[in-house]
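ok trying this again, last paste got cut off
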Amino acid sequence: MDNALLNRTVEFLLLPPGNLLLLLLLLIFLWRKQKMVICTLLAMGLLQVIIFSLPATANWLIAGLEQQYPPQKDLWAQDKLPEAIVVLGAGRNRNAPEYDGESTSLTGIERLRYAALLHRKTGLPILLSGGQPLPNVRSEAELMHDVLVNEFKVPVRWLEKDSHTTWQNAELSNKILLAEGIQSAWLVTQAWHMPRSMMVFQSQSQNQGITYQAASVSFSSIIPWSDLYMKWVPQPTALTRSMIALHEWVGLLWYKLRQYQSH
């Protein structure tokens, strides 16, 4: 099985709601012998879904990520500009017949829109980073290229088409920028993804002379219908946001462990 597909499968099974499937299998195994354990596990499973479905929980988890790199108005007006713009891949929409079959994701569109703005304000060259999670499909970088060039009318200088993770985004993007003599770049991604992205990009580039600056986009910790008592009413949108945040918090922990092991 492809590594990217295997990694996502494990992640989805360990985090809610996917871990409820593992919990169900455990309950079946214990059914006749451990009724108290079964009831406890069942209650814990239901409780976690309820908690992570609350807008109050989702807002808190996402805000903890977004506040690490707060919004920067008129980023291009700073005294010393970087030398390039790096945009990270954000998945794909595989069912987009109106775009000849597939396109970049809505999350990717947000990143590309901001990258296009930064380019128009500064003229800096753009690197798109994103590989192929499945065989025989176009890379995320190529899909993003189509949108930037054909729709936003913004040129793209480099494509990194082999990465499957944020760690690999940094690894492979660094190689391209070093070969071109680039020593600094803006890193464009969602505000909730920026802490993990900056951690790995800064870590992998610290001995290579490349400096990265956060160019965060899409500060969206506040969920619609989360005012007053509605923040305590379980909602599917909140569960989705909680899972995004948990993915990032777990990813931060995992990357810190990798850094510790590499030292």
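PB: full thing came through this time. The chain has a mean pLDDT of 87.
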